[in-house]
Amino acid sequence: DKGEAKRAVELLEKARLLSPESQLVRYHLARAYAKNGNNALARTELQQLLRGQPFPERVAAEELFKQLSR
Q1: 3-class DSSP state for residue 37?
Q2: How far is the C-alpha of 5 from the C-alpha of 33, rounded, in Å?
Q3: Which H or E run contains 65?
Q4: Which pLDDT tens digit goes with each residue over 5-22?
Q5: Buried-exposed string 44-59: b where 16+ CB fall within 10 A, e elsewhere
Q6: What is the pTM of this model?
Q7: Measured between alpha carbons, how far is 40 from 46 in angstroms, rounded to an integer?
Q8: pLDDT tens string 23-49
């Protein structure tokens, strides 16, 4: 959110490797991908995330997925 989306992607990709089951990390990674204009990767990440268990950011993730699918 502070304009460092490229750095965020790097850090979040590392975090996802260390904690692949973290829904929060995956959600924020998808947001960072979208902010960098990589909508295809963001959609893929969100699709995988939304297939899983409910999580607090699910509504926001669903809305982001809808926006990226337009």
Answers
A1: coil
A2: 8
A3: helix 58-68
A4: 889 999 999 999 999 999
A5: ebbeebbeeeebebee
A6: 0.92
A7: 10
A8: 999 999 999 999 999 999 999 999 999
